[in-house]
């Protein structure tokens, strides 16, 4: 059976790699697994057929035979466990890589998403200007801790792993804010992730869906 994932019919970011299906595409590319993509409109995401796969009406979903998964972290973890190449063989190193997966999604990403909400969704609120510096300070505190832990290493714990895949994907959300450049080690870390051939294939595939038609 061919692995099938869902993605936005038209991504809100215009194909810049921020939609979460890019993370799943990247994991599949790293694992060397072919996959098909079913594009879903915003209207279709609220319909029973899609809600049967994702109860919260989001993307991506992952289907391989009878197995249907939602939640990006769970999907990437499944790919890493099932197909190899994204988790170390050593049991302790494997556990540490999984811990970094959780850290990316549970510790680093929430304040970064808060920044998006503060700048876009809450921009017209009377308290928005006061809240924004607080959100940025929370992000900087986490990035400072992460940068200190990374040090001069290429990856978070030995070789590249699913933990790095998710962490780079999360940090990419900061690019437009300019905050990533405040942390040169992390900016270089993200650049190494983007330079991986598997990421470049995943990014190109997502961008191709959103590229405007030519002449």
* Strand adjacency order, main sheet: 2-1-3-4
Q: Helices and strands, in N-to-C order?
A: EHEHHEEHHHHHH
Can you name the CATH architecture of the largest domain? Up-down Bundle
Could you give a short account of the major beta sheet?
4 strands, mixed
With helices defined by DSSP (H or I, 4 residues minimum), what is the helix count? Answer: 9
| CATH T-level topology of the largest domain | Glutathione S-transferase Yfyf (Class Pi), Chain A, domain 2
**Assembly state here?**
single chain
> What would CATH call the class of the largest domain?
Mainly Alpha
Helical content (DSSP H or I, runs of 4+): 55-70%
Rg over alpha carbons: 18 Å
The count of DSSP E runs of length 2 or more, i.e. the number of strands, is 4
Topology:
Elements: E1 3-8, H1 21-31, E2 35-40, H2 42-45, H3 48-51, E3 61-64, E4 67-70, H4 72-83, H5 91-121, H6 128-150, H7 162-171, H8 184-195, H9 197-210
Parallel strand pairs: 1-2
Antiparallel strand pairs: 1-3, 3-4
Helix pairs in contact: 1-4, 1-7, 1-9, 5-6, 5-7, 7-8
